[in-house]
Specification:
The protein is of the alpha+beta class and about 400 residues long. It is built from 13 helices and 17 strands. The longest helix is centred in the N-terminal third of the chain and has 20 residues. It is elongated, with a radius of gyration of 27 Å.
Length: about 400
């Protein structure tokens, strides 16, 4: 078989996903919940190109991501370009570029798609979408507690209970007294046994690993508890892998035995804008991925029941009633009803089977009587109930 005649695989590129309609419906649901909660907090949506200069990530993103996980290439102009692996450096660039024109505090969010070349596994793909929420211009713990409260409220907006997840808080300032090699080790601690960690820790320090919460971290936790967020604790091994974090950091952990892992996190990064030659701007935020969010919802039985996009399917008895059916569809759509048309020459029984397979709840069959009288019979497929009336009457019924 020649190269030209060789069949192309129907499989997607490794580590990315195809979104069939039912998958797209779930993703849209996740995005809708994210947006509703963010907007309740007064956050504004932004976006940017997926392409960034590679140098944006070299000094502040973790070495593992830069050296092993980025999709980086040289464009035709000789510039080194990266498909963004995360959004925080991008939003920092945007704020630094227009800082004096933007009234602070800024409350911004975005749902960008990102790319990382890593081994695909549960909760991790090479392409993903990530909610990013950030506050710029507030140096006090008010911003830290708001961003964590926001993360908590997003989880409960999906139907999660406090017992379903735990918020673990730490402070990167506590790690300043430790050797630099301690941070990557602590970042991997959750994936290691206690014995493995102890062995690796001895290579760094002669004293056992132990850190106590500082006054800032205690104040954040106590403030959250006053706001009825009870599932928050101090965990000195939460460090977040990115080099730009400078203060409070946190991670949200799934408590379910089948998915007991960190699902997302964030923290304070007051020094990031300095890389653009700008003065320090206090900032705190988090990123929440769509893949892990879907896994969480699936694990806890919180995935929504997806309704079909069409409320009713119109079924012409034969092609001679196609024009009448099209006019009926237009009138119903003008009345705000979602309508699917059946095209083809199948019998009514076969058309009804198609509607049923698509979970469309209602059908209307159009033939000679309907064409003459402009009165139509609406049938509910599940219960078999029928209602006959004009377009206006059926529209009222379908809108109820």
């Amino acid at each position: 078989m020649t190269e030209k005649s060789k069949k192309v695989s129907t499989e997607p590129y490794k580590g990315v996903r195809d979104f069939y309609p039912k998958d797209m419906a779930v993703q849209n649901y996740i995005f809708d919940v994210w947006r509703k909660v963010l907007e309740r907090y007064g956050y504004e949506e932004y976006n940017a190109s997926i392409l960034e200069p590679a140098e944006l990530y070299r000094s502040k993103t973790s070495e593992e991501i830069v050296n092993e996980q980025t999709y980086t290439f040289t464009d035709r102009g000789g510039r080194e370009v990266t498909l963004r692996p995360e959004m925080t450096p991008t939003v920092a660039r945007m704020v630094a570029g227009c800082r004096r024109e933007l009234p602070t505090p800024l409350r911004w969010f975005s749902i960008p798609n990102c790319f990382r070349y890593e081994r695909p596994q549960r909760g991790r793909t090479r392409e993903f979408w990530q909610l990013n929420a950030d506050i710029f211009g507030v140096s006090g713990i008010e911003a830290d507690t708001e961003i964590i409260s926001l993360a908590h409220d997003i989880m409960t907006a999906f139907g999660a209970k406090d017992s379903d997840f735990q918020i673990q808080v730490n402070n990167r300032k506590l790690l300043d007294t430790l050797p630099s090699s301690a941070i990557p080790l602590l970042d991997k601690k959750g994936k290691m046994s206690a014995e493995e960690f102890a062995t690796e820790w001895k290579k760094i320090s002669d004293t056992p690993f132990a850190l106590e919460a500082d006054t800032e971290t205690i104040a954040v936790i106590e403030t959250l508890k006053k706001r009825a967020i009870s599932n928050v604790i101090f965990n000195p091994s939460v460090v977040r892998g990115f080099a730009y974090y400078s203060g409070i950091v946190f991670e949200i952990f799934d408590t379910h035995a089948d998915n007991n892992r960190s699902i997302f996190g964030g923290g304070r990064y007051d020094n990031l804008l300095e890389m653009f030659g700008d003065e320090k701007v206090p900032a705190v935020g988090f990123g929440m991925g769509d893949v892990i969010m879907r896994d969480f919802l699936d694990t806890h039985g919180l995935l929504p029941k997806i309704a079909p996009s069409a409320t009713v399917m119109l079924c012409p008895i034969s092609s001679e009633y196609a024009d009448t059916t099209e006019l009926l569809a237009k009138e119903l759509r003008n009345n705000g009803i979602n309508v699917a048309m059946y095209y083809g020459d199948k019998k009514i029984g076969d058309q009804i089977k198609v509607a049923d397979k698509k979970h469309i709840p209602y059908i209307v069959c159009i033939g000679e009587e309907e064409q003459k009288t402009s009165r139509y019979t609406l049938k509910e497929l599940v219960r078999g109930e029928e209602t006959t009336g004009t377009v206006a009457e059926l529209s009222k019924k379908l809108s109820a």
